[in-house]
Amino acid sequence: MRVPGIICASRSLLPGPDGDRSLEQVVNVATLPGIVEASYAMPDMHGGYGFPIGGVAATDPAHGGVVSPGGVGFDISCGVRLLAADADRWGSVRGRAGPRGRTGPAPV
Predict the structure, then answer these.
(1) Which of 16, 28, 66, 100 is deepest in the core (most CB within 10 A)?
(2) If you average pLDDT over residues 48-59, what whole number do you get?
(3) d(CA 81, CA 69)
């Protein structure tokens, strides 16, 4: 593994040995080129097509990483979102009115 795998769940929420491969998938994601910091899995994790559903990972394209919104598959309404942003531009959008009167960048 290039980075640690971090599971955000209590023991009672961990998947059982019923064929769910989500824990193995957390480890696999931690070996991806360009991954930074950690491979994370949220409490509702379950097996996906590559990433576990409920998995989170950031990669750095400058170090071989890729942006892959399809890491977990393409289930309808699964809640996967992709935000591409130029980090240098955040200063120019802070303080502007956003959706529903919020200020700053729109939530993802």
Answers:
(1) 28
(2) 85
(3) 7
Per-residue H/E/C for the chain: CCCCEEECCCHHHCCCCCCCCHHHHHHHHCCCCCEEEEEEEEEEEECCCCCCEEEEEEECHHHCCCCCCCCCCCCCCCCCCCCCCCHHHHHHHCCCECHHHCECCCCC
Sign of the CA dihedral 17, 23, 70, 78?
positive
Please tell me the distance from the alpha carbon of residue 47 to that of residue 72, in angstroms, as a whole number.
9
Instruction: Name the pTM for this structure.
Output: 0.65
Q: Which of 34-38, 71-75, 94-98 has the lowest mean pLDDT?
A: 94-98
> What tokens were used for 66?
């890729």
Amino acid 78: pLDDT = 61
